[in-house]
Design brief:
Helix content is 33%, strand content 32%. It is of the alpha/beta class and 209 residues long. β9 (133-134), α4 (138-149) and β10 (154-162) form a beta-alpha-beta unit. α1 (10-20) runs antiparallel to α2 and α2 crosses α3 (82-91). The protein is globular and about 65 Å long.
């Protein structure tokens, strides 16, 4: 069984409290989501392989470490996942970016794919799937499945907030995928929204309803 990582760093928790606030507007929401994503990326990449190199400083030769020839791709689940891409790319600017379009049917709550565009060498890359809200887990489960069907095997899922139900569902369907979250909330309501959550991340990110 893959691991659940709750990243409870004080800076993440502080910014998350502002993100949750219903009075936080789209501009500040976007900025904070990017900042939190960048902070989370520090932990998400902690176990990436490194190799030793030599670097000439102004004084002497230093033995240093660099990330091994790891190919990385960031894959946001549209549309809310787009808000997390910038923060990740600030730390990993050479990563390629794929996109998966999944929406949740309001009645059945089941995921429906409408778009998928990925790097051609997706099977050779470490993948970081981005989806701010892990509610029922349907979109994440579908997104991970789409990637596996295209040959991907090294996958991490990164979410801002998760419900216990979503975590359990993803682990049941994809036990090999590590999950990284900023907070685990109480539960889902009858409409499939996380309680207390932060509302609809896509609407708050783009100022829509």
């Amino acid at each position: 069984m893959a691991s659940l990582h709750v990243i409870d760093h004080p800076l993440i928790q502080h910014k998350l409290s502002i993100i949750r606030d219903q009075n936080t507007g789209p501009k500040e929401f976007r900025e904070l989501l990017e900042e939190v994503s960048m902070l989370m990326a520090y932990e998400v990449t902690r176990n990436f392989a490194v190799e030793e190199i030599e670097v000439e400083t102004p004084v002497a030769t230093a033995r240093c470490w660099t990330i091994s020839k790891t190919k990385i791709a960031v894959v946001p689940i549209l549309r809310a996942g787009l808000g997390m891409v910038g923060g990740i790319l600030k730390l990993i600017p050479t990563a390629k970016v794929g996109h998966i379009g999944v929406y949740r049917d309001p009645e059945s709550l089941q995921p429906i794919e409408y778009y998928c565009k990925l790097p051609s060498d997706i099977n050779e890359r470490e993948l970081i799937i981005l989806d701010p809200m892990l509610a029922t887990g349907g979109s994440a489960i579908a997104g991970i499945q789409f990637l596996k069907q295209r040959g991907a095997s090294q996958i991490r899922l990164v979410c801002l907030i998760a419900a216990p139900e979503g975590i359990q569902n993803v682990q049941a369907k994809h036990p090999d995928v590590d999950i990284y979250v900023g907070a685990v909330d109480e539960c889902l309501n009858s409409h499939g929204y996380i309680i207390p959550g932060l509302g609809d991340a896509g609407d708050r990110l783009f100022g829509t309803k």
